[in-house]
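INTERNAL AUDIT FORM
Audit reference: QA-55
Scope: verify that the stored structure record matches its stored sequence.
Auditor: D.O.
Record contents follow.
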Amino acid sequence: MNSNSPGRQSKIWMDLDLDAERKQVGFFRLPLAVHDRSGDDAGYNYEPIPFITIRNGDGPGVLLMAGNHGNEYEGQIILMKLVQELQVDDVCGRIIVLPAANAPAVRADRRNSPLDDGNLNRQFPGAPDGGPTAMIAHLIESALLTRVDYAVDLHSGSLSAEYLPCAVVARPPESARIDDALDRLRVFGMPIGMFIEHSTGGDHALIGACRRQGVHHLSTELGGGGSVSREALRIAEHGLRRLLHHVGVLRRPLTAQPPQECRVLRRVPASDYIYADSSERGLFEPLVGLGDEVAAGQTVGLIHFTTTPWREPESVTAKVGGVVLCRRVPARTGRGDCVFVIGRDWTSPLATAVSDR
């Protein structure tokens, strides 16, 4: 593969050699004119996608990503700080870093790309001749995942949700790899680890791409709500350093912080999330918070109606019991809006995505 062609048939180009033995910083260049998304004043422009690669001898390869969704901030900060610190001598193998994976979305401060409304985490395996977001997905799967053994994708709750900070692994296709996945959760050392049976995006998410390429995957949910959680940032910074040392790509952990004890949960299926069911939109008053335990049938919130303020509020109840993992941020709420996501203790390799009610 030559240095100007990062992925077979990809129209994205670069000026560096991905396989060089040194620390490099530069840009993948996403051409805008290919799909007439350049605007009236920029017919031949490109969108720069920043990347950093550090390679030093033989060892494992790791892809670090943030900005998969452009307005999820903690991961972007963590990776920018890490790449400024890391030097070639710290590494044994290869680290590739995309701090702003969906660069158009990061630039626009949006979840999805302003070029094609593309959600990068629903575009894999992508296509070299697809839209801008599909081209980025194709680059990641065909040129980056094929060079690594592990991928870490740092997410948070975007503008509409806030998460109980947690690390996330998906159930590996081989049962023999379950213990290894759980070990990565515990080494990362967030207070909550989430073991999911199926990714929301299925085969079109990065998790699906990792499965196709035989790459071990870990992701996070680090707060959200359009802000940056100081505590989640701190815990995840130390966790990422421990994990990179654990898989062998760092010669030393670069942190003395031990992992916290990790409670492993599984997310209940979407049908058991807690939804508002009011035909009229109103203001949602939460009666529980992140990390709280709720019981099936418990009233977890009230919807108040500003158009008829004398009307009694409607109750929102939990369908199943468990731990509140995620909450809706906007107060204005109506039928179909998810107000809470629930997790339950993961106890067995035989656990399925079907809730045991």
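Auditor finding: record pair retrieved intact. Helices lie at 74-85, 103-108, 132-144, 178-188, 206-213, 230-246.
Action required: none
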